[in-house]
């Protein structure tokens, strides 16, 4: 199915739980996200929810939250050259 959308509430819960359980965000940010965003629309989040999401993004840093256990692949990475040569 890929990255299917269920509804805003369950998508937020799943996302926040994932970030928190994998140590990408602090306990306080997790609780802030839950308080500020759980009943918001993902299309039109509140100002407070946007602040909470910005804080979570800052805490995650340069980590790809969709692939936390794999090395990054970017323009200058050594893996990029080997992948490009393969294809």
Automatic annotation (TrEMBL):
Pfam families the UniProt entry points to: Peptidase_S10
GO MF term set: serine-type carboxypeptidase activity
Family: Belongs to the peptidase S10 family.
Taxonomic superkingdom: Eukaryota
GO annotation (BP), single: proteolysis
Classification via InterPro entries: AB_hydrolase_fold, Peptidase_S10
Name of the protein described by the UniProt record: Uncharacterized protein
